[in-house]
Specification:
Helix content: over 70%
Structural class: mainly alpha
Shape: globular
Low-confidence stretches: none
Strand content: under 5%
Order of helices and strands: HHHHH
């Protein structure tokens, strides 16, 4: 690991976190329901992007930390943009608000739709190759 790797991952993560915060603000201004729409949309769109970029850039998991672009975008930006911890917090809040069914649907829906989004992102990118 080089200092440039740390810098790229940190910079990408910071930009991704800022993008997540801005999306959260924008969604929060328009939506007032109990379902965590912002976190849901961030995780699904992030899964689509990682599937798309992984195929488009011929990204192999063995190269996850080796190439500067992968370090900046895939490890940094998308890790900051998506948020597993916020999803778990949202699920906990729903459960404590006596909305356990919604929490479970949120969890399963996020995982299933994120998988499908990554799959379709990869399929779309393969059309460009």
């Amino acid at each position: 690991m080089r200092g440039s790797d740390l810098m790229l991952a940190s910079l990408g993560g910071g930009i991704g976190s800022l993008a997540r915060w801005l999306v959260g603000l924008a969604v929060g201004r328009r939506y007032r329901g109990t379902f965590p729409v912002a976190t849901f949309l961030l995780n699904i769109s992030g899964a689509f992007l990682i599937g798309f970029l992984a195929v488009l850039l011929d990204f192999g998991w063995t190269e996850r930390f080796g190439h500067p672009f992968n370090t900046f975008i895939l490890t940094g930006f998308l890790a900051g943009y998506t948020t597993f911890s916020a999803m778990v917090l949202d699920m906990s809040k729903l459960h404590h608000a006596q909305q356990t069914s919604l929490a479970l649907m949120y969890m399963v829906g996020t995982v299933v739709l994120a998988f499908l989004a990554a799959f379709f992102g990869a399929a779309l990118a393969s059309l460009f190759l």
